[in-house]
Design a protein that fits this description.
Radius of gyration of chain A: 16 Å
Structural class of chain B: alpha+beta
Oligomer: heterodimer
Distance between the termini of chain A: 11 Å
Largest sheet of chain A: none
Helix content of chain B: 25-40%
Shape of chain B: globular
Helix content of chain A: over 70%
Largest interface: A-B, 43 and 50 residues
Radius of gyration of chain B: 23 Å
Largest sheet of chain B: 6 strands, antiparallel, barrel
CATH topology of the largest domain in chain B: Thrombin, subunit H
Distance between the termini of chain B: 64 Å
Number of domains of chain B: 2
Number of helices of chain B: 4
Number of strands of chain B: 12
Structural class of chain A: mainly alpha
Order of helices and strands of chain B: HHHHEEEEEEEEEEEE
Number of helices of chain A: 8
């Protein structure tokens, strides 16, 4: 009786499509280069806090790779690595199934900062970006964090409900 | 006791790390074709994205059109003047073209030489965009099946947008000009540029895009070059990758270069790098290399 997991994966895929197609039209032109929506990663953060960090790790790796392959400009694997690892690390610290809203929002902020910094680091290591970190921080990481914060607030209730059902299902399976 | 990493986990972590570094290093080089899983993933997501992007664009465009309504009369007047001028220029152009063709025949040009500047523009629909500064790309709905090859130039109505960085069967990825970078070993090559209306007098290499200011930097402009502020920069077409005559941007400032021997021009890109609908891929004559 596995019903919730495919729903979650479909939701992630849908969000991935939305962030590449609809969101560029919704974000004002001035902010378009500065807010880099990563809705998939927000959901993965929810999974890592409310469900399990291993699920989040796998999801981060898979959907990061999807992003890398579809928007293959320079290198493969950067997003996969950053999303997977940062989701896992966040899960290692914050995996609290009863986490209240303020804590979850802190996690969203921290997680998106961690992921963006990791991406920045990867591109820096391969000498693909010349900009200093503090510029990148002000230019796109902070606006992105705020955007993710707002998106996290919107997604909080439906996602938590889904994840609770998913948790219940896994427990039932283990009991049976 | 809480232990951060036990042996097994540490082992897995290290293996993954190494695997990722290998993958990144491997994908960093220029790749001629993609493997079948990549093709499959790109084409299927491309198909789904196509269903979303275009309707969203139309709805967004509708609101924008309502906003622009009052500018229409003014724009119409300007366009009429332009159209009249265009008709005169076209007549002139036809004479010169015919003459030129005659000369080419007289001088016994080979077929490849004669077709060098014969470009075809194919319209492509954008299916999705990512605006990340270090990987600013977009996906279009033409692929290898439509004859797209690596490094073809992509332009919008305003000007040069980028080059094709990867091709799968039905979609391809466009690397935007914002990723032009002289320090990156496989960035798109620098563009040989010149000034519109001073084509034989000016020359410079557009080498990188400055993320912080959002401007293109044109270096290696020789001393005594008549380049000035507000000149329109177009591509020169030497070097092979970029076709001739693509609009790139307008000069904002000309200053002394890094070593004092040449000048550097700061160029404001003509293309806006946001909200795309249709783009044009420039098909050039395939060259034997």
């Amino acid at each position: 009786m596995k019903m919730r997991r495919p729903v979650l994966i479909l939701l992630l895929f849908l969000l991935f499509i939305l962030e590449g197609t609809i969101l560029p039209w919704l974000i004002p032109d001035v902010w378009e280069m500065r807010m880099i929506p990563n809705l998939v990663f927000i959901v993965i953060l929810f999974v890592t806090v409310y469900h399990h960090r291993h699920t989040a790790l796998i999801m981060g790796l898979c959907f990061g790779m999807l992003h890398d392959v579809v928007f293959y400009g320079r290198i493969l694997g950067a997003h996969s690595f950053a999303m997977g690892l940062s989701a896992y690390l966040i899960g290692l610290i914050f995996q609290i199934p009863r986490a209240p809203l303020p804590l979850m929002m802190t996690v969203v902020l921290l997680g998106s900062l961690l992921e963006d910094s990791m991406l920045f680091g990867i591109f820096k290591v391969f000498n693909l970006s010349q900009e200093p970190y503090n510029w990148a921080l002000l230019h796109h990481m902070l606006p992105t964090m705020l955007f993710h914060f707002a998106a996290g607030l919107l997604l909080y209730i439906p996602l938590r409900r889904q994840l609770e059902l998913l948790g219940k299902e896994t427990r039932d399976e283990e009991a049976a | 006791m809480f232990k951060l990493f036990n042996n097994k986990r540490l082992f897995i972590l290290l293996i993954t790390l190494v695997a990722f570094i290998v993958l990144m290093g491997f994908s960093l080089g220029q790749r001629k074709t993609l493997s079948w899983p990549e093709n499959f993933v790109r084409d299927t997501t491309g198909f789904v994205q196509k269903l979303f992007y275009k309707p969203a664009g139309y709805i967004a465009g509708l609101f924008e059109d309502i906003g622009n309504l009052h500018d229409l009369a003014e724009e119409n007047k300007r366009l009429k003047i332009l159209a009249a001028q265009y008709a005169r220029d076209a007549a002139q152009l036809n004479f010169i073209k015919a003459e030129n063709e005659g000369y080419k025949k007289d001088l016994k040009f080979t077929k490849a030489q004669a077709n060098l500047y014969n470009y075809e523009y194919h319209i492509a629909n954008v299916v999705s965009v990512t605006t990340e500064p270090s990987n600013n790309t977009l996906v279009i709905d033409l692929g290898a099946k439509d004859g797209i090859r690596l490094n073809m130039s992509v332009t919008s109505i305003d000007g040069l947008v980028g080059v094709i960085s990867n091709v799968s069967n039905f979609t391809s990825t466009v690397k935007l000009m914002t990723m032009l970078d002289i320090y990156d070993p496989n960035s798109q090559p620098p563009i040989a540029g010149t000034v519109f209306n001073k084509e034989d007098k000016t020359f410079g290499m557009i080498e990188r895009y400055d993320q912080q200011t959002g401007r293109l930097i044109m270096n290696k402009i020789p001393v005594g070059d008549p380049i000035a502020k507000d000149d329109i920069i177009i591509s020169k077409g030497t070097g092979g990758v970029y076709p001739r005559g693509m609009t790139i941007g307008t000069v904002e400032e000309v200053k002394k270069g890094e070593y004092g021997l040449t000048s550097t021009a700061i160029i404001k890109p003509a293309a806006g790098f946001q909200d795309w609908k249709e783009l044009f891929v420039v098909f050039t004559e395939e060259r034997v290399e």
